[in-house]
Amino acid sequence: MRERPDEEAGAAQAMLARLGWVLAAAMGLVVLLLAR
């Protein structure tokens, strides 16, 4: 019960979520620049 593969999955999901936020922020900046 000490080993938890779920923790690795959670870490991967957290990393993907961070990448998603970064991509969303980048897309927002691009949209703002294009909307000028």
Entry summary:
The protein has 36 residues and is mainly α. The chain contains 1 helix and no strands.
- Large-scale geometry: rod-shaped
Head-to-tail CA distance between termini: 56 Å
Largest sheet entry: none
How many helical elements?
A: 1
Number of strands: 0
Fold and architecture overview:
With 36 residues, the protein is mainly alpha-helical. The chain has 1 helix and no strands. It has one helix spanning 5-35. The protein is rod-shaped and about 55 Å long. The model has no long low-confidence stretch (mean pLDDT 89).
Sum up the structure in keywords.
single chain, 36 residues, mainly alpha, 1 helix, 0% strand, rod-shaped
Write the layout of secondary structure elements.
Blueprint: H1 5-35
